[in-house]
Structures are given as structure tokens and as C-alpha cells.
């Protein structure tokens, strides 16, 4: 399954060889892929299957309140298309009062819960847990990476030198439908640090974003600020969001928000991290 002939020649920095990633995975041995169904984890899973064979790759999707309602179904579609071994597992980060308090190290607590769920599965498989972290992810406030690495997880995309653009380009070349899929980080990332994470808040964010996607906005975030929802859409969609403001307001208010604000800066990944003091970016995982 390939569409490489239909892809224009890449310009700019040289594209890392797919074989380099496959060599990293072959040396790693059997793997359990933390599988969200996004561009990174889907590409990593398919590359692992190419390198190791289907029997030595298990994709595991962590299901919790912070996972959007549409995401599990999407994951199921990807694994059916590519014949991947797959299972789901429930994680219990909402049982962790530190996670619920939502400090700048919340992501570390989430990855601890993820590793608590994946480590026993990896032991059963005689495998290593691998995450779809790419080189671009290393520059943001992501304490979960250190937490996962401290528990023995590896990041093959980083080891092979792959950026997000590299992942998307290779995904397109091998025919992965996720090549242009917008990133879909956990719903808790929409809640400012210091604001507790609750089941109701996660449901409201999920319902508001689902409603906006149903209106045709592909890249969207609903940032939770109490009774106010701050909506981010792609810069090219700002005019449309304003033109359709009655529809936008309607679906967001239906999710439980009293007020709806459109962020004029447009969508940006990790937008709430600007509120993290520089010193807090180095908090220990625990």
C-alpha cells in the first residue's frame, strides 16, 4: 500500500530514511506502541510492523476521561486498515489527586498512569514500550516525556531523527490516512494549570470541540476558562468562524459554556504553556 509516486519531491532539509527508523525498531525488539491514532503513533506502529512483523508489535490505546469520545473509534479504523494488533486499556489518572490539581507537572502524572497500565502488558509481551515522540516535541513543556523515559519507555522517532514534518511526509508516502490528521492531545491540555481537572469539564470540552468539528473546523481547540470557552481555529478559518458565529456560539453553549470567545491569534499547539513560569518547566516527574 503506497502512494509514493503521487507525492511531490520534498524541498528543504533532507528527509530521514525510513530504513533508519526501521533499524532502530529492529534493534529494540518487540514493542508495545502507545497508540493514540494520531500521525506520530500511527506512523510509528506501521514502521514497527514493517521492521518487526505483526506478531512482535502490539498497539495499546489508553482509554480515560481525557480521551475524546471519537478517538477510540478512529484508532479502531486505523488498526483495521493496516492489520495491526491492538487492544485498549483503562488508565486511572483521575484517581490521582496531584493530576486532578493540575499543576505544571500534570502531564508527568498522566504518563505515570500510562506506564502503570502499559508496563505489565509489555512484560507479558517481552517487549519495550515505545511512544510517538518526535524531535519537535522536545522543545516544549512536556514533563511527561521524562516521566515515561524514567520508566523505560523509548522514543524511536527521536532516535532516528524524525521531526513532525518528516512523520507527515513519510506517512503520506506510504499511504497512511493520518498523514494530515490534526493533533489531538488529551482533553486536560485545554484546562489552564491550577484549574482542577473534572469529569464535567472534560466532557464540556469534548462536546464543544466535537460540535465545532461537525461544523467543518478541522483544527480546533476549546480552552476552558470557567464559564468562558476560548475557541481557537486555524488562522485561515478565523473569517469563517466569525461569519458563522451564531453556529459556533450555539454548539459551544450547548456544551455548557455561558460565554464564547474567539481567539484572534488562531490555533496554536500548547497555547496554555505560555502561562508556565520558566522555572516550572523543569519540575521533576514525581
Q: What does this entry look like structurally?
A:
- With 286 residues, this protein is α/β, with parallel strands linked by helices.
- It is 41% helix and 12% strand.
- The protein has two domains: 166 residues, Rossmann fold (3-Layer(aba) Sandwich), CATH 3.40.50; 82 residues, Histidine-containing Protein, Chain: A.
- Strand 2, helix 3 and strand 3 form a beta-alpha-beta unit.
- The radius of gyration is 19 Å and the shape is globular.
Q: What brief labels describe this structure?
A:
11 helices; alpha/beta; 12% strand; 7 strands; 4-stranded parallel beta sheet; 286 residues; single chain; 2 domains; Histidine-containing Protein, Chain: A; Rossmann fold; 3-stranded mixed beta sheet; globular
Whole-number tally of structural domains: 2
Shape: globular
- Under the CATH scheme, the architecture of the largest domain is 3-Layer(aba) Sandwich
Radius of gyration: 19 Å
Distance between the termini: 43 Å
**Which strand order do you get reading across the main beta sheet?**
3-2-1-4
Mean pLDDT: 89
Number of strands: 7
Largest sheet: 4 strands, parallel
Order of helices and strands: HEHEHEHHEHHHHEEHHE
Provide a count of the helices: 11
The fraction of residues in strands falls at: 5-15%
CATH class of the largest domain: Alpha Beta
Could you give the topology of this structure?
Layout: H1 18-28, E1 31-34, H2 39-52, E2 57-63, H3 71-82, E3 86-90, H4 97-101, H5 106-125, E4 128-130, H6 143-150, H7 156-159, H8 164-174, H9 199-214, E5 220-225, E6 228-233, H10 238-243, H11 245-254, E7 259-262
Amino acid at each position: 500500500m503506497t502512494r509514493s509516486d503521487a507525492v511531490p519531491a520534498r524541498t528543504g532539509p533532507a528527509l530521514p530514511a525510513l530504513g533508519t527508523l526501521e533499524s532502530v525498531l529492529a534493534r529494540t525488539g518487540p514493542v508495545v506502541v502507545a497508540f493514540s491514532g494520531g500521525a506520530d503513533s500511527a506512523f510509528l506502529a506501521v514502521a514497527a510492523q514493517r521492521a518487526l512483523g505483526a506478531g512482535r508489535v502490539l498497539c495499546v490505546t489508553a482509554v480515560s476521561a481525557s480521551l475524546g469520545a471519537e478517538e477510540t473509534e478512529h484508532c479502531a479504523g486505523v488498526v483495521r486498515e493496516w492489520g495491526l494488533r491492538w487492544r485498549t486499556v483503562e488508565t486511572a489518572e483521575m484517581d490521582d489527586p496531584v493530576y486532578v490539581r493540575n499543576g505544571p507537572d500534570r502531564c508527568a502524572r498522566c504518563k505515570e498512569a500510562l506506564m502503570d497500565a502499559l508496563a505489565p502488558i509489555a512484560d507479558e509481551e517481552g517487549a519495550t514500550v515505545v511512544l510517538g515522540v518526535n524531535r519537535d516535541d522536545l522543545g516544549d513543556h512536556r514533563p511527561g516525556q521524562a516521566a515515561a523515559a524514567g520508566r523505560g519507555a523509548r522514543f524511536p522517532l527521536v532516535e532516528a531523527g524524525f521531526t513532525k514534518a518528516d512523520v507527515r511526509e513519510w506517512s503520506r508516502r506510504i499511504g497512511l490516512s493520518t498523514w494530515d490528521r490534526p493533533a489531538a492531545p488529551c482533553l486536560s491540555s485545554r484546562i489552564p494549570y491550577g484549574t482542577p481537572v473534572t469529569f464535567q469539564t472534560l466532557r464540556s470540552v469534548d462536546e464543544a470541540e466535537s460540535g465545532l468539528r461537525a461544523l467543518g473546523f478541522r483544527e480546533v481547540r476549546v480552552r476552558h476558562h470557567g464559564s468562558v470557552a476560548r475557541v481557537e481555529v486555524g488562522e485561515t478559518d478565523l473569517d469563517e468562524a466569525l461569519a458563522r458565529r451564531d453556529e459556533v456560539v450555539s454548539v459551544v453553549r450547548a456544551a455548557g459554556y455561558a460565554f464564547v470567545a474567539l481567539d484572534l491569534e488562531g490555533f496554536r499547539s500548547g497555547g496554555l504553556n505560555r502561562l508556565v513560569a520558566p522555572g516550572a518547566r523543569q519540575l521533576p516527574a514525581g
